Amino acid sequence: RHWRRFGGTLARSDGRVQVGGLPVRNARGAVEVSPEAVVFRQFEAETLGGVVHTDGVARDGAPEEGRLRLGLTPEAPMDLLLHLEGLNLARIGEELRMAGGLSGSLRGRLDFRSASPSPLDYTGSGWIEVRDGQLGTVPVLATLWKAVDIEPPRFRSAEVQFRCHAERNPGTFYIERLELEHPVLSVRGEGWIDMDGYLRMKATVRTLSPLSLPLVRDLFDVLLEHNIFGPMQRPQVRQRLLEKVSGDETRHPFPLW
User: Fold this and answer.
1) Which residue(s) pair with 248 in the sheet?
2) If DSSP codes are grouped into helix, strand and coil, which group holds residue 196?
3) Which of 93, 130, 228, 252: disulfide with 104, CB 3.0–4.6 Å?
4) How many CA atoms lie within 13 A of 192 on its CB side?
5) pLDDT tens across 69-92, in order?
6) What would the pLDDT profile of 226-238 be if each residue is shown by its tens digit?
7) Would you give the DSSP letter of residue 169?
């Protein structure tokens, strides 16, 4: 007989497996298998000190039913909506082989689909939030701290919102918003990061001072803005005003604004 579809439940409470190079344990949920795809519903698994699950709560507080669909056709398409809760940033840094100096608790939401495993086919959006985080060894931020001559601070919160579109800008993530909050310091940024690790961003670093008043802040933001560009591991930082005055903006191959 030709089978078309069957289903069941998954509960792995002992031992560990590797998924995409990440250690996963205590996975559970409903699974449905067909010739076209494996579909997980009400899925939950522990990884990197936290939990990844399909069903969660949207940012407006409404319940949200996620999905995890892995295609079995030769193209191997993917479709997912996953919630991240309580992931350990230090553990993530270890998996990415980054130097010490990362800490904090991470949560977020990933909503992506792809016609193939290639990152060039990714379309979707997501956000990530870190609470009480130390981000000193992230290359982009480490270079920025050096440029503005401050020690890597411990942030009360950090948030990144991003999206990508396979047809409009294949292989590129647009960072819609980067926000870092500290009792006496804030950072705002936006820009693009390519899959090959090349980035083109601008960032404003603002300290708690009279510059924080709305009218004065708007007048002085141009003095505080920096262009960040180049390979992610060795980015360059240039003050935007100096580049405009000196005509030095042509230095980087993809002018942003």
Assistant:
1) none
2) coil
3) 130
4) 16
5) 999 999 999 999 999 999 998 888
6) 888 888 778 888 7
7) S
